[in-house]
Amino acid sequence: MSAPSDTQRMEKIVSLCKRRGFVFQSSEIYGGLNGAWDYGPLGVELKRNLKNYWWQMTVHERDDVVGMDGSILTHPAVLRASGHVEGFSDPMIDCRTCKAHLRADQLVEKKGVKQCPNCGEKDLTAPRQFNLMFETHVGAATDESSIAYLRPETAQSIFVQFKNILEVSRKKLPFGIAQVGKAFRNEINPRNFTFRSREFEQMELEYFCRPEQGMELLEYWKEERLKFYENIGIPRSKLHVLTVPDEERAFYSKGTYDIEYDFPFGRQELEGVAYRTDYDLSQHQKATGKSLEYFDEETKQRFVPHVVEPSAGVDRTVLALICEAYSEDQAPDEKGKMETRVVLSFHPRMAPIKCGIFPLLKNNPQLVAKAKEVVALLRPHMTVFYDESGAIGRRYRRQDEIGTPFGITVDFETLGEKDPALRDTVTLRDRDSMKQERVAIKDLPAIFRERLA
Ligand code: ATP
Questions:
Q1: Alpha-carbon gap, residue 188 to 133, rounded angstroms
Q2: Measured in Å, how far apart are the chain's first and last C-alpha atoms?
Q3: Distance between CA 309 and CA 281 in Å, rounded?
Q4: How many A from CA of 39 to the centre of ligand 1?
Q5: How far apart are CA 187 and CA 90, in angstroms?
Q6: Rounded to an integer, what is the distance from CA 338 to the centroid of its chain?
Q7: CA-CA distance, 86 to 397, in Å (whole number)?
Q8: Tens of pLDDT along 344-393?
Q9: At CA 201, angle to CA 198 and CA 144, rounded to 5?
Q10: Which of 50, 221, 316, 317 to mutate to test ligand 1, by most ligand atoms within 8 A of the CB atom?
């Protein structure tokens, strides 16, 4: 059963994303481009932290995976061989009354009769297949011969470069090729904020193996990916593994899991982990007449490798991180009166800014100079934000709202005015517990190294 949707919570999240510069509607001042989003100063940091951590875990920390970065413009023959030109489509239905274009699975059914979810009318067209790929033309001509596609997934360039990468990396099976990059799908109804967009990013791994290893590696990668989500702050209790039933799986797949998350708008897919057999490589081999076989030195066997694919959405995971982190609690204001505090409790690893640095008073040159020294000390190691305006409690709140896990305040004790033993110490505040500790400035880099690891 899916989790109940929480429209109000989602509205607050969308509004915070805009107000604090995580996500903006694309081309907003022109009225917006449906299904496209721009990430602002904080959103881009969050997104980079996610992609970098995925890359670190998937490529850098493993001996058996290498990376690549393929082109977005794709030769039509690639996507004909993969089946996308023929079959990458959704059934679409139009409502003749309100003119809405709908995906067939969005219709509502009352007493066995299908109706439009927008206006409730029943005057609907028959379903027709709508190809989700964006077509463009390469070069000056705009005829059949110049058609190219914006890739609908990053995976195909991995399959097409399989032989080159195998040769240059000299890897032995099992091994993987990873890629992070943009993909484009002309979704009939983009919706749920960034969840279903027409332009989005994927983090995909194609892990090649022997046929007999496929099912076991499918289980292995499902578990690895669940651990990944836990490592970025999404608890296991909010993640659900759906075994995609035989009739819904791609015909070539021997097993597929969807990893789902409880978004405020319901339980929805974050990532697919699929055992795609040797389908893709075999298709490209057939279409090109070039061998994409692997030669096993030990057994002297030659065969087309099988592949297990964990395919995650960057934007969907960013949205899950924000939804998971959003909370409201009660905290005292400057005068001790309780007020509602909005907090994004990002895992420190994901937080766009790691530490806010504040001089207690902005009109005290010594406090300001010391605070700027702390900024200079920490900036090479992490993202910091210097803020001297407003009451200190307000400054903490502003950082809580964007998920900054730590706050440093430089006060008169830092200057050694009250107790010489406290000279060059600062208060270090924790976003979640709001507890403060007194630490020496010189110890800060080591403290953060440990807490941000
Ligand atoms: P859905 O069923 O939600 O359309 P899918 O099963 O077609 O997704 P895949 O083709 O398996 O998706 O793509 C892998 C991942 O890419 C998805 O799990 C998702 O995280 C991301 N993704 C796919 N389509 C979109 C989209 N329109 N907007 C944002 N992310 C997407």
A1: 11
A2: 36
A3: 13
A4: 19
A5: 8
A6: 35
A7: 53
A8: 999 999 999 999 999 999 999 999 999 999 999 999 999 999 999 999 99
A9: 55
A10: 316
